[in-house]
Amino acid sequence: MTVRRGWSRPRGGAANVTAPRPYRGASPPPVAKDPSFRRSLTLFRAFLHEQDDPEACYSLLARDAVDQVEAYDRPVAGRTVVDVGGGGGYFTDEFRRRGAYAYLFEPDVAELGAKPPEGAVVADGYLLPLRDGVADVTFSSNVLEHVADPQTFLSELARVTRPGGLIYVSFTNWLSPWGGHEWAPWHYFGAERARARYRRRTGRAAKHTLGENLFAVHIGATLRQVRARDDVEVVSARSRYWPFLAEAVVKAPGIREFATWNLLLILRRCPP
Q: What does the chain look like in DSSP terms, one character per residue?
């Protein structure tokens, strides 16, 4: 594991945090009321420019996600936030801008980009170099569909969250129109066929391969697994982007696998 500046590894393997100082920039207004058609449309338009303007897309998504965290919990200022799999650090930066002590753990060096946040750590989400219960908020955006063992991943998120702390987990379910990621919606006709089509159309290989770095995660199975756990309580299970009835759509078996788009789980860490 690579440890970047701002972290040290004491005996016992856990990380001692020398906290990067939170910063407070000008506070932009919320994206829009959540849920609402205006918000969904704003995010969708940003997603259309993910490839040509990732800064604008992911900065907007980060603002929206932290708004959600604060709506379900309370302001993050002065609190410890662990961002697992946060890529280039847009979410970590937004948490810090609002005054949180936020730390990024990312397994893929390439995803960190040229200027990762200060103190970013290259680490596996299955085995975070943190002591039990260090985080007030543990955050994971669109990561669960990229791990082969979601249950172990969720267990690690719960482990590093203090009792009563909040766990934010979202993922793109396989049968969503976006389930195949860059080769969606052709994944409905088979992953290999969709990948081949992507190569023909773009002239380059797809980033994701089913069974290697993308997995078919389903809403029904995930909800059953999470509700059976005794270390977390489900506060909300809802569509992250749906413009209305965001929780109701998740309660409809079958339909939810297609209509939810992206499942957001808000969990509360139970006392040991």
A: --B-TTEE--TTSPPEE-PPPP-----PPPSSSSS-HHHHHHHHHHHTTTTT-HHHHHHHHHHHHHHHHHHHS---TT-EEEEES-TTTHHHHHHHHTT-EEEEEES-HHHH-SSPPTT-EE--TTS-SS-TT-EEEEEEES-GGG-S-HHHHHHHHHHTEEEEEEEEEEE--TTSTTTTGGGTTGGGG-HHHHHHHHHHHHSS--S--BTTTB----HHHHHHHHHT-SSEEEEEEEESS-SS-TTGGGGSTTHHHHH-SSEEEEEEEPP-
Nearest to 4 by CA among 96, 129, 97, 143: 129
Instruction: Report pTM.
Output: 0.91
- How distant, in Å, are the alpha carbons of 24, 57, 152, 195, 207 from that of 43? 24, 8, 31, 26, 23
Using alpha carbons, select from 141, 136, 162, 11 the residue that is nearest to residue 74. 136
> In this structure, what token pair is assigned to residue 189?
């006709």
Bond prior to 35 in cis (omega within 30° of 0): yes
Mean pLDDT (10-residue bins), the chain, 272 residues? 29 47 71 93 92 92 97 96 96 97 95 89 96 98 97 98 98 97 97 97 96 97 98 98 96 97 97 90
**Phi, psi angles (nearest 5°) of residue 83:** -105, 110
